[in-house]
Amino acid sequence: MVAYTINKEGYSLEIYIDNVKAVRGRFSLPEGMLAFPDKFCPSYQIDRGNPVNRSMNDALCISTNQWVEYIIGHADEKKISSSTLLALMNGNSITFLFELSNNDYRQTSFSLQGSKRAMTAAFGENVSVSESP
Predict the structure, then answer these.
(1) By CB neighbour count within 10 A (0-12 exposed, 13-18 middle, 19+ buried), where does 39 fall?
(2) What is the residue range of 22's domain?
(3) What is the CATH number of the domain that holds 106?
(4) Which residues contact 122 (CB under 8 A, 6 or more apart)?
(5) Chain segment 5-30, per-residue pLDDT in tens
(6) Residue 71's pLDDT is what?
(7) How does the average pLDDT of the chain come out, rounded?
(8) Three-class DSSP labels, the chain
């Protein structure tokens, strides 16, 4: 299952667990918008936390010209270890700062209101989320 939101500007954010139990966050541009530059990882900031533009363990994001994806945690049986996921579930907003292929810079935000409920529904009531070791 996927926890999904789209903001008023048409950007989307998805949080899901893939087939190898990696917890992923995917940020996508609206349809018809210019593309991301090649191999570009936007920065994101949850509330007043530090801006980040890497996956866990300082790995690069996975990117196409229309979306970028970050690995933000790992799930096993009934537990997910991810400081980022915990911040997404308990935070107020997430903001992305990014460049487009025409060298314009943009910024967009998503409200995280209701995110804990949406992610609990997507991952299951019995799955606990804790800080990364």
Answers:
(1) exposed
(2) 2-130
(3) 2.60.40.1880
(4) 1, 2, 3, 15, 16
(5) 999 999 999 999 999 999 999 999 99
(6) 96
(7) 92
(8) CEEEEECCCCCEEEEEECCCCEEEEEEECCCCCCCCCCCCCCEEEECCCCCECCCHHHCCCEECCCEEEEEEEEEECCEEECHHHHHHHHCCEEEEEEECCCCCEEEEEEECCCHHHHHHHHHCCCCEEECCC
Read off the pLDDT of residues 94-103 as tens digits, 9 standing for 90 and up.
Answer: 999 999 999 9
pLDDT at 121 over 80: yes
Place of tokens 């606990």: 128
Structure tokens at 75: 């799930």
Average pLDDT score over residue span 70-87:
91
- Measured CA to CA, the distance from residue 88 to residue 124 in angstroms comes to 16
Q: Count of CB atoms within 10 A of residue 32's CB? A: 6
Going by C-alpha positions, the residue among 5, 41, 39, 2 that lies closest to residue 18 is 2
Instruction: Give the contacts of 56 (CB within 8 A, at least 6 positions apart).
Output: 70, 71, 72, 73, 74, 82, 84, 132
Q: How many domains does the chain have?
A: 1
